[in-house]
Amino acid sequence: MGTTTLKEVNSKLKQLPESLLDEVERYIDFLKFKYEQDTHAIPQWHKDLVLKRMEENETPVDAFGMLADIKNEE
Fold first, then answer.
1. Span between the terminal Cα atoms of the chain, in Å
2. How far, in Å, CA of 74 to CA of 72, rounded?
3. What is the domain extent for residue 29?
4. Residue 38: is it exposed, middle or buried by C-beta count within 10 angstroms (0-12/13-18/19+)?
5. Cβ proximity of 25 and 17 under 8 Å
């Protein structure tokens, strides 16, 4: 697909049934969220924490194991 103009997108939106506009809006929100996640750099504090754990040879956190333990306690 080539470059799509805002005019073309608006034209297509106007052709959709009104019942689909909520779904389109949610999808646009999803795309915006996804783009923001892809463009954000990893914060320095997070890098520092990971490097510290690597230097101290700490065992990585096993999130699935933690969830299993919680379920077993119930």
1. 53
2. 5
3. 6-39
4. exposed
5. no
Are 12 and 35 members of one domain? yes
Residues 23-67: pLDDT tens digits?
A: 999 999 999 888 877 667 777 888 888 888 888 887 777 788 888
Contacts of 7 (CB under 8 A, 6+ apart): none
Q: pTM above 0.70?
A: no
The closest alpha carbon to 24, from 53, 71, 32, belongs to 32
Query: Are 69 and 48 within one domain?
Result: yes
Compute the distance between CA of residue 32 and CA of residue 38 in angstroms, rounded to an integer. 10
Q: What's CA 5's distance to the chain center, in Å?
A: 26
